[in-house]
TrEMBL record:
It is a multi-pass membrane protein. It is found in: Membrane. PANTHER family: DOMAIN PROTEIN, PUTATIVE (AFU_ORTHOLOGUE AFUA_5G09900)-RELATED, PROTEIN RTA1-RELATED. This is Uncharacterized protein. Keywords: Membrane, Transmembrane, Transmembrane helix. The chain crosses the membrane at residues 21-41, 48-67, 79-101, 121-142, 154-177, 189-208, 228-248. GO terms for cellular component: membrane. It comes from the Eukaryota. It comes from Fusarium duplospermum. Coiled coil: none annotated. It holds the Pfam family RTA1. The lineage of its organism: Eukaryota, Fungi, Dikarya, Ascomycota, Pezizomycotina.
Amino acid sequence: MGLVQFEDGKVLYYPYTPSKAAGFIFMALFAVVTIIHIVGITRYKTRYFIPIVLGGICETFGYYGRAWAGSKPNSPKPFMLQLMLILVAPVFICATLYVTLGRYKQVLLGQPKRKCSPTSLFILTDIVAFCTQIGGSLVQVTGSIKIMKMGDKVVLAGLLFQLFVLAIYSYLVFRFYKKACLETLYAGIWKPYVWMLGVSVIAIWIRNLVRAIEFVQGFHGFISENEAMLYIMDASLMLGVMVAFLIFHPGRLLSQGQGNKVHSADFSTQDRNELDWINRR
């Protein structure tokens, strides 16, 4: 176990030289998507999207760290920058997922807002996951093998904990979907938005599973030794989640809700045509 290796008295941060081009490409992609999300917060007045913006900022600077590491693969600064920010970015994105489900319940099912709700508990678990992952990654450059191995275990525990929480969340999304199918009018209008939640949580779950396996395999594991795995199983999945939230922005659905139900008349002709086309596929 361990993402840092000591060989011949030297510290090795990567089993390869990170790609500058890939780092800059994903830095630019995350930056663009994050800026669009900032515009969306203003347009739809969705302050609960601030966490996903923070996640996008983490991803942007994290992949800047990857590009920087392409020039300085033996420097601890770019290593720590990319490790911490890319590792914890999904925690922020998950916070928006959790709140979104709560908002859907209020609008589509007419459930009252409660002080102690599943959303609040999920946010609390998110804080725990953040603290464990950021704490474990911070000790990766201490120079103490014992402390670094302990940090690896802390990060792994945080990832496994988040996997457990996301599994529970996915069940709640499925249960909400079944209930909404029975109680909400015009199912074709809201279904794609809930599907987006389900697909997003699966994508994040897979990403976390791969990162957990990476920590178990260690520096010379298959995942750590193949940079493409980072961009396929982490960067691409998280970028896909952020783009999905743009295509099916919850604010677009929630801002049209009237009372406890969402009616087809609440949407523009273009919105109805798009959503009905998606629902028929």
